[in-house]
Write the structure tokens for this entry.
Amino acid sequence: MAIEKQDFDLIQVLETEFDSLSPQLKNAARYIISAPDEIALYSMREIAGRAKVAPATMVRLADRFGYDTYNKFRDDFRKRIAAPVTGYAARARALRHRQNIVGGSSLGSEMLAAEKENLIGTYQAISNDQLELAAEACLAARKIYVVGLRKCFPIAYFFHYGTRLFFPSSVLVQGQAGLFREEISQIGKEDLVFAVAFEPYTRETVETSEAAREAGAMRIVITDSPVSPLAKDAEFVFIASNRSPSFYRSLTGALSIAQALVAAIVSKTGDQAIEALDQMDAKLRSSNTYWYK
């Protein structure tokens, strides 16, 4: 019996109805649940081959859930990519349901496949020129303000840590002791803001980006969509693919962009950067920062 399609999570419907499916339809549904984004990206024959079923089985599965054609079935998966489910609890629930059906042993391979796709998707949208120009903008700025809060804090911290020798006056915006607005109120038109945020966007990160825009400061943003509130009128926008079978968005693509930008800054700085790094390394070793047996 076909299910009436209104506003529902198609993956959740597949999970709920899984036990009522025939063995072949279960094989198809199991693969779809384990890799839903692939339905939007690959042909029916390709998906059938990966699921180890006949192409006709994919048509029957679409029909089973009330779709006139397989293409309409696939369109709903394309909509999922355009508008992913938000909320940590919802994603954690989806992870649990999926693992109950496909088996916990698949999580590692799912994570690996997702991260490979994230890196490929991220760098397909980035040019070397864009990285070099962003590095030049950093070097030309009077002061750099770095912000990335909550789940994105590791990205912001890495960028700040990786460039602290070259930009000793840079500010890692954290808002400690309630000083957030005081920190961002100092942003001027000769400065640059490096901001990182994914949906759901942390309010203070968006406010920092807005403060930079109003002050006329340059902005480099790493975010998840061209329509992200950080991307509005920003001079440099890096879109990081961040899909994950886990309940937290992947940080791999964003961290890779930050690493590439740090490398571009070092390259642009040349011998001066090498000398500074050499001096820092010597100080760390002399102060017993590193462990030696």
About this structure: Strands lie at 144-147, 171-172, 192-196, 218-223, 236-239. The CA atoms of residues 5 and 126 lie 38 Å apart. Residues 1-8 have pLDDT under 50 and may be disordered. The two ends are 69 Å apart (CA to CA).
